[in-house]
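for the writeup, i need someone to sanity check this before i put it in the appendix. the sequnce is what the collaborator sent (i think, or maybe the updated version? ugh). structure was predicted straight from it, no edits. if anything looks off just tell me and ill rerun, i have time this weekend
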Amino acid sequence: MLSQHGGMLASNEIVRGSRLVKESVRSGLLTLETLGIVASSGSGRSRVYRFNKDHYFAPSLSALFEAESDRFTAIIDSVHQSVAGMPFFCLFFYGSAARGDDRPDSDLDIGMVAKAEDLAGAVEGLREGLRDAAERLVFLPNVVGLDFDDIRRLDEDDDPWWQSVKQEAIVISGKRPEDVMSFDGEARG
């Protein structure tokens, strides 16, 4: 985050932007400052940090963070391409990637809502369409399909999984998953 920002940031801004735990950010900043990769100004709670562009490792670290950002964009693009022409009402990701606490070995939880008669084919098509991209971009897609009856049941049962999906889902295409029941148009695709 600091390498891409280019200016000074307070630790609370870094915590918010990175979605990491406050103590982890502060510990990391102290270590990076000791190594000279990060410089700071101020004192106590009014301390701000900046990435040291002149550090020997700065170009490598900047390239690494840019490559990771490009990789995630390529993953989302591959999901878009994989559903082209398929009948669905919404496509979203949720779980650790949506919360920002995913790790390199985390899977990418993808949800798809479609009509019951289209669901199995659309989910299988998405899984098949992601096979090559998943290998090339090194990610594990976990595709979950839902139809309108599934959503109605999950909502009526106040299902904990569904409640967390509604809170954290990031829409790739279509409506938010909890708004699908009010969709009065045709399926996307």
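The mean pLDDT is 89. The radius of gyration is 20 Å.
thx in advance!!
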